[in-house]
Amino acid sequence: MAATDIKRYAELSVESADIRPHESTWQRVRRSGSVRLGGGVIALLILIAIAAPWLGTVDPTMFDAGSRDLVPGKTGEMMTDEGDLVKHTFWFGSDSLGRDIYSRVIYGTRVSLFVGLVTALVSLVIGILFGLVAGYIRWLDGMIMRVMDGIMAIPAILIAIALVAMWRASLTTVIIAIAIPEIPRVTRLVRSLVLTIREEPYVEAAISLGSSTPKIMFSHILPNTIAPLVVQGTFICASAILIESILSFLGVGLPPEIPTWGNIMAEGRIQFVSYPHNVFIPGVFLTITVLAVNILGDGLRDTLDPKMAKRL
Amino acid sequence: MYQFIARRLLSTIPVLVIVAVLVFLLLRLTPGDPAAILAGDAASTQQIEEIRETLGLDRPLPVQFAIWVGQLLQGDLGESYYYKVRVTELIAQRLEPTMSLAALTIVIAILVAVPLGVVAAWRFGGWFDRFLMGFSVFGFSVPVFVLGYLLVWLASLKLGWFPVQGYKPIANGFGPFLHHLVLPAITLSVIYIALLARVTRASVLEALGEDYIRTARAKGLAESRVLISHALANAAVPIVTIIGIGIALLIGGVVVTESVYAIPGLGRLTVDAVLSRDFPTIQGVILFFSFIYVVVNLLVDLSYVFLDPRIRY
After folding, report:
1. How far from B279 is each of A170, B105, B204, CA to CA, in Å?
2. What number is the average pLDDT over the span B96-103?
């Protein structure tokens, strides 16, 4: 007992203390294991998305009736657009139309990452505008926040499903439909940040110096909301990737010929008992992607926004 | 206290009104002619005109809204285009599977997540705590349909423990009813467990830092009593709050889970209504789900009075 006590006190001594020079936020973020893990996987996925045509893929919409329902690793034939029959190894098998699942999964990375990223940006931009207005222009606050409460009372997936059903699914409508239910969360966050920040002495100083309202909002308040917003953005990105795949899976999302992970699974579920890999392979990619984005978000939250990290 | 309940009840009215307006606008503020969209691609001009007239789409928006709300207040959600029955009747038929699934999911989630969260907070920073936090990130990330198919493959196809799909009404016997429901409920509960365990851990952890915990330990209470009657009891408010907020997750999950397991509930109805462009049904189901969400969170707010005697309104 005594020995461990001595050891513990030794650890508390100045000599052994892990004293580091003052770190910048960027250095702290880079040192975080979660940021490295999540960010590394996402970087790899982005590379896969960009390099999709050169990764041994074929046109993901191309099908050959002779190569239907192949198990992973089987070699079959495919008719190219020029009409030549080429030998092709179906690493992940083929679906019931004879499309190469490997190519569809690889190209599906593009759709998922694009939808996740753009949805996060769209809902952040719109949410920031509403949040700044609600937090700074008091007479509009009540009205905006009541509407946001109303949107939040409708489950996100239902809003997305209903909007996509009305608009006919395309990349743009899917992104807007997923972004709309996310906007209130951003608005709430920005509004609460504004309400705290506007009481800070530097904002008071700007007001007393006669700065205009837009100038105060954009050059004094907005920069101080960036850290929590980056964190919120990654979580929106993860949820957008999930909801897009759900829409596709339910058959109400992007048209079935577009290679998205949800579409591959929707097609594969019909023959799930005989060919479960058609559901599992895109499912694994989807899970890894969302997991990576969430881990990155957790890492960013812990390093950028310690106050928020403590709350949950 | 009655005053508080009355005030809280009144405060849900504006939210419900805004939800009604939003759901109403959802189907009206679309690019193009709603009547043409409702009629479908194969409809003639005459059919489109007919739909416009029966729905009153030729009248000004506020008038349409007033008529619609008037019907709504009489409990009339209109008639389904596809099933040709009242939407309220349709919802009533589909209510049992969904409610059973949701109830079993919540029970499983609470029974699993709360003890896990308490133990993780008790052994804060230990291997169990880190494992649980890791699991909860995974639980948030794995899509409910991927998990559903994984469980079907493992527990039904490989091990043969559960039926692959389908639903048995409770009227046909409790055994088969539960047997069909367990796997979907486990699937759906994972994300709920992730959320609930995290919040339980955080709020128990906060309670454990309080002076009364030290007092309880100092007077020689068993650790289990310290954890349950002191720490957990004081962490109840945030836990119950997150159960209420989690209902939104649950509703989203129900739509997907029912589709995976072919359960003829409200979630299936929603997807079928969207695929057949059955707008009165879409509207009705969304309103119904939102109403449930608002009411559950109202009950959660009211429960604070019983959970925390310090809260007196």
Report:
1. 20, 29, 45
2. 91
